[in-house]
Hints:
Blueprint: H1 6-39, H2 47-90, E1 93-96, E2 99-102, H3 111-159
Antiparallel strand pairs: 1-2
Amino acid sequence: MGLGDPGSTSALGGALRQQAITLTDLVVDLTEAAERARRSGRMDLSVRERELLSSTARQLDAVGAALQSFTATVLAGAARIRALADNAARSDLVIEGSVVVEARGPSRVDPVDRLRERERLQELLNRVSAAEGKELARIARELGRSGPALAALSERARLGS
């Protein structure tokens, strides 16, 4: 399973979250300027902009967080798979993709023990795949929610509403 290489995925998530921080900082600056304007009797003309920036920041942060969480899960899963592969080799088994199979050639491992170990390792490998699948589904949900929200925010910004 994958969503690009983990480094790039994490970097994208970090860039989105950094952009969210930048937008939030702008909201703080605009809020401070609005407070100064109100104290001097002028109107606050930045309400719409602050709301648009805040909403956009929330969406970007949510997507970035999902990407970074996925990356952490993939890296932890890769480490777990390496450990499982080491265990598999001791029983003359190998991991091919998402399946634990018998290694080619004769084996000195008792067939019953080998089958039991194969089933155990397959269950553990399935858990790793399931964790990655859950994170990938989280990204899909987040994009499904944030994509339309960001499009609506963009349209509102273009229309000035």
